[in-house]
Amino acid sequence: MARILIVDDSPTEVKKISGLLTKNGHEALSADNGSDGVAIARSEQPDLVLMDVVMPGLNGFQATRQLTRSSETQHIPVVIVTTKDQETDRVWGTRQGARGYLVKPVPEDELLKTIDDLLS
User: Fold this and answer.
1) Residue 102: pLDDT band by 50, 70, 90 thresholds?
2) CA gap 2, 49 in Å, rounded
3) I want to staple 28 with a disulfide (CB 3.0 to 4.6 A). Which of 3, 21, 52, 93 is the partner?
4) DSSP string of 86-118?
């Protein structure tokens, strides 16, 4: 089905989401920080990016902005997946170009529906 890049510095979270994606027929790629996430998105051109916010170095908001503003990657939808659940965080994520915003822990059906909606 789809190639989905998970950008998250938590190995546990990456494993959990990767397992869910592969179980549902998707290919999962991963990066453990924002800089690597941007580089992998440029080189691999995934169908979708799931982006954490709180990471060392380039945070998820900054990485999302780079992806959504670059002609190489602006066509790739970015969904922020984070523990930050304030309305201001949601607004800021949208301003950076995110096409979705999910708060951890994300119910599996909600994550899959968001992915399906953005890829269909």
Assistant:
1) very high
2) 11
3) 21
4) -HHHHHHHHHTT-SEEEESSPPHHHHHHHHHHH
> Which H helix or E strand runs over 42?
helix 34-44
| Per-residue confidence band for 110, with pLDDT thresholds at 50, 70 and 90 | very high
Tokens 């916010």 sit on residue: 53
Q: In the beta sheet, which residues pair with residue 28?
A: 4
Q: Which amino acid is at 100?
A: G
What's the DSSP call for residue 15?
H
Q: Are residues 6 and 50 in contact, defined by beta-carbon separation less than 8 angstroms? A: yes
Look up residue 76 and give its amino acid: I
Dump pLDDT digits (tens) for 8-21.
999 999 999 999 99
